[in-house]
C-alpha cells in the first residue's frame, strides 16, 4: 500500500498523466462495440502514429487500485498508481488515434476511441485498462481497471437493495470499525499525497505554459501539416478509386512482360546463334590471318637473319676497307719519304758526279804533273810524290763514295718501283671492296623493301583482326543493351507492383493489426511481387565459372552474370583479367 502511494512522484507517472481517460465504467458488456473517452493535456501534442490499446491488469496491481476506489466511495477518473503490464507490446488489441480530431486545436476537448466487438476479450474474469501510447512507444496515459460482464451481473452488483436489513455481531462491528480507522488513516495519507500531487500539477502547469509558448510555432507547423494530411487523404482516396484500374493495368503489363520476355528469349537465341556463327567465321578468318602472319614472321625472321649476316659481312669488309685505307696512307707516307730520299740521293749523285769530273780533271792534271815531274829532277820530287799520293787516296775515296751512292740510288729506285706496285694492288683491292660494298647496299635495300612490304602485310592483317574484334564488340554491346532494356522493363514492373502493394496495404481505421506486422506483411507482398516479375528467386546459387556465391537472385540474373565472363572455348579457363590480344594468343596456343 505504501509503495503504491509513493509512485505518483516518479517521472514515469508524470508522463502517464498527459492523457486522462474519463467516464470509465466498472464493466462493459461483452460482444458489443466499445467506446472510450479521453482528454489530452497542453503538455502533449498528439500525432497520427499514436494508438490506444487494451491491456490486461495483473491481480497484484488490481488489489491496491480497487482498494483505493472502495476507500474513496466512488471510481476515480484519474491516473492509476501503476499499470498492470511490463511492455507496450503486451496489448490485447489497439486502434489508431483519429488525427482528424486535432483540427480544432483545443487540447481539453473530449476525444474518442472505438473498438470493434470482434477484437475485444471474451473472458469475464480478468480486468483490463486503456493505455495511450505515442509513436515512440512511450505510455502517455492509463485508465482505471474494468472488466467485461453481462448486463444482469452488472445490475446485480451495482444495484444494492436499499431495504435490506444487515445483521452482524459485535466482533464484526469492532473489526469493521478498526478497518474503517485504518482506511481513514490511509485516506488521510492519500489526501496529503493528493495535496503533494496538486503542487506537482501546479508546477507542471507552469512548465506546460512555458512549453505551450514554445509549441506555438510547432502548432502553426502542425496546422500546415494537417492541411497537407487532408490533401494526402484526398489523394489516397483517389488512389484507392484507381487501384482497380491499376490492377488491370498490372495484369496487362504482366502479360506484356511475358510476351516481351518470350520475344527477348527468341531474339537472344537468334542473336546467340548469329554471334556463334560470326565468332566461328571470325575464328576461321583469324586462323588464316594467323597462319599468314606466322608465314610472314618466318620470312621476316629469315630475312632478318640474312640481313644480320650481310651486316656482319659489310662490317668486316668496311673494317678491311679502313685497314686498306690505313695501309694506303702508310704506303703514301713511305712513298713520299722515298721520293724525298730519292731527291736527296739524286742531289748527292749529281754532287758526286761533279766531284768525279773534278777528280778526272785532277787525275789528268796529276798525270801531266807526273810526266812533268818525271822529266824534272829537282829537289822537290819527294813533296810532289806525297802530294800525288794524297790526291790518289782522295780520288779512291771519292770513287768508293760514288759507287756507294750509285748503289743506294739503284736501291731507292727499286723500292719506289715496289711501292708503286703495292699501291696499284691496294687501289685494285679498294675498288673491289667498294664495288662489293655497293652490291651489299643494293641487296640490303632490296631486303629492306621486302621487309617494309612484309610489315605492311602484317599491318593489314592486324587491321582485319581489329575489324573482326570491333564487330564482335558491337554485337556484345547490342547484347548488353538488350539485357539492360529487359532489366529496365523488370524495374518498371517492380515499381508498379510496389505502388499497388502500398495501395493494398493501407489499413482501415478499426483494424487491430500491429504496425510491425503490417510492415512485415507489406514487405512480404512486395517480395512476392518481385519474384513473380523476375522469375523464381533462389536462396543460394554459385557461378559455375568464378565460383562466386549469390543470395536471392533469379536464374536470369545468374545467366547474365555467367555470360559476362571471358571463357576459353578449349580449356574453359576464366580470362577476365587478360587483354584481348593476350586472350587470342591463349586460344591460338591450343590450336598449335
Give the helix/strand class.
alpha+beta
Number of domains: 3
Number of strand elements: 11
Number of helices: 11
Low-confidence stretches: 1-10, 63-81, 156-167, 508-517, 523-535
Q: What is the CA-atom radius of gyration, in angstroms?
A: 65 Å
Secondary-structure element series: HHEEEEHEEEEEHHHHHHEEHH
| Secondary structure: helix percent | 55-70%
What descriptive keywords fit this protein?
592 residues; alpha+beta; Immunoglobulin-like; Helix Hairpins; 3 domains; four-stranded antiparallel beta sheet; 11 helices; 68% helix; disordered N terminus
List the helices and strands and how they pair.
Blueprint: H1 2-6, H2 11-16, E1 19-22, E2 27-28, E3 34-40, E4 51-57, H3 59-72, E5 91-96, E6 111-115, E7 127-133, E8 139-142, E9 147-148, H4 151-158, H5 170-214, H6 216-241, H7 243-375, H8 381-504, H9 515-534, E10 537-542, E11 549-554, H10 555-563, H11 580-591
Amino acid at each position: 500500500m505504501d509503495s503504491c502511494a509513493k509512485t505518483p512522484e516518479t517521472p514515469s507517472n508524470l508522463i502517464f498523466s498527459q492523457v486522462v481517460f474519463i467516464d470509465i465504467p466498472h464493466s462493459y458488456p461483452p460482444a458489443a462495440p466499445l467506446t472510450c473517452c479521453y482528454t489530452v493535456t497542453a503538455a502533449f501534442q498528439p500525432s497520427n502514429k499514436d494508438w490506444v490499446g487494451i491491456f490486461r491488469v495483473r491481480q497484484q496491481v488490481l488489489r491496491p487500485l480497487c482498494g483505493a476506489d472502495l476507500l474513496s466511495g466512488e471510481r476515480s477518473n484519474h491516473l492509476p498508481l501503476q499499470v498492470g503490464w511490463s511492455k507496450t507490446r503486451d496489448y490485447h488489441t489497439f486502434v489508431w488515434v483519429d488525427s482528424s480530431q486535432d483540427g480544432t486545436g483545443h487540447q481539453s476537448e473530449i476525444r474518442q476511441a472505438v473498438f470493434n466487438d470482434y477484437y475485444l476479450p471474451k473472458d469475464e474474469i480478468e480486468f483490463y485498462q486503456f493505455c495511450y501510447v505515442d509513436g515512440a512507444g512511450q505510455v502517455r496515459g492509463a485508465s482505471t481497471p474494468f472488466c467485461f460482464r453481462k448486463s444482469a451481473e452488472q445490475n446485480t452488483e451495482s444495484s444494492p437493495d436499499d431495504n435490506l436489513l444487515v445483521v452482524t455481531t459485535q466482533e464484526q462491528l469492532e473489526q469493521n470499525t478498526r478497518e474503517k480507522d485504518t482506511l481513514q488513516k490511509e485516506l488521510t495519507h492519500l489526501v496529503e499525497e493528493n495535496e503533494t500531487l496538486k503542487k506537482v500539477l501546479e508546477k507542471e502547469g507552469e512548465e506546460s505554459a512555458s512549453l505551450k509558448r514554445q509549441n506555438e510555432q510547432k502548432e502553426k507547423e502542425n496546422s500546415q501539416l494537417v492541411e497537407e494530411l487532408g490533401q494526402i487523404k484526398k489523394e489516397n482516396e483517389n488512389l484507392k478509386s484507381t487501384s482497380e484500374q491499376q490492377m488491370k493495368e498490372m495484369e496487362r503489363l504482366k502479360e506484356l512482360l511475358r510476351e516481351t520476355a518470350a520475344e527477348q528469349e527468341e531474339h537472344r537465341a537468334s542473336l546467340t546463334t548469329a554471334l556463334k556463327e560470326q565468332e566461328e567465321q571470325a575464328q576461321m578468318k583469324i586462323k588464316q590471318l594467323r597462319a599468314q602472319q606466322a608465314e610472314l614472321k618466318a620470312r621476316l625472321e629469315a630475312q632478318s637473319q640474312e640481313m644480320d649476316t650481310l651486316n656482319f659481312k659489310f662490317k668486316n669488309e668496311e673494317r678491311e676497307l679502313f685497314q686498306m685505307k690505313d695501309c694506303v696512307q702508310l704506303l703514301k707516307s713511305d712513298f713520299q719519304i722515298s721520293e724525298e730520299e730519292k731527291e736527296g740521293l739524286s742531289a748527292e749523285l749529281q754532287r758526286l758526279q761533279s766531284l768525279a769530273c773534278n777528280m778526272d780533271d785532277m787525275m789528268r792534271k796529276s798525270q801531266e804533273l807526273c810526266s812533268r815531274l818525271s822529266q824534272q829532277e829537282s829537289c822537290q820530287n819527294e813533296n810532289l810524290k806525297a802530294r800525288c799520293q794524297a790526291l790518289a787516296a782522295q780520288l779512291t775515296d771519292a770513287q768508293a763514295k760514288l759507287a756507294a751512292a750509285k748503289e743506294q740510288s739503284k736501291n731507292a729506285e727499286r723500292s719506289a718501283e715496289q711501292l708503286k706496285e703495292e699501291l696499284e694492288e691496294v687501289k685494285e683491292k679498294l675498288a673491289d671492296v667498294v664495288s662489293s660494298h655497293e652490291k651489299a647496299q643494293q641487296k640490303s635495300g632490296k631486303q629492306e623493301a621486302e621487309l617494309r612490304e612484309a610489315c605492311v602485310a602484317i599491318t593489314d592483317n592486324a587491321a582485319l583482326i581489329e575489324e573482326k574484334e570491333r564487330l564482335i564488340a558491337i554485337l556484345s554491346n547490342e547484347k548488353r543493351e538488350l539485357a539492360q532494356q529487359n532489366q529496365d522493363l523488370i524495374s518498371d514492373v517492380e515499381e508498379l507492383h510496389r505502388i499497388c502493394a502500398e495501395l493494398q496495404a493501407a489499413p482501415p481505421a478499426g483494424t487491430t493489426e500491429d504496425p510491425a506486422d503490417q510492415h512485415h506483411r507489406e514487405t512480404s507482398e512486395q517480395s512476392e511481387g518481385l519474384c513473380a516479375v523476375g522469375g523464381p528467386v533462389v536462396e543460394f546459387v554459385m557461378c559455375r565459372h568464378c565460383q562466386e556465391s549469390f543470395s536471392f537472385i533469379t536464374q536470369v540474373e545468374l545467366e547474365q552474370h555467367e555470360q559476362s565472363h571471358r571463357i576459353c572455348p578449349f580449356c574453359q579457363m576464366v580470362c577476365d583479367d587478360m587483354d584481348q590480344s593476350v586472350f587470342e594468343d591463349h586460344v591460338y596456343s591450343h590450336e598449335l
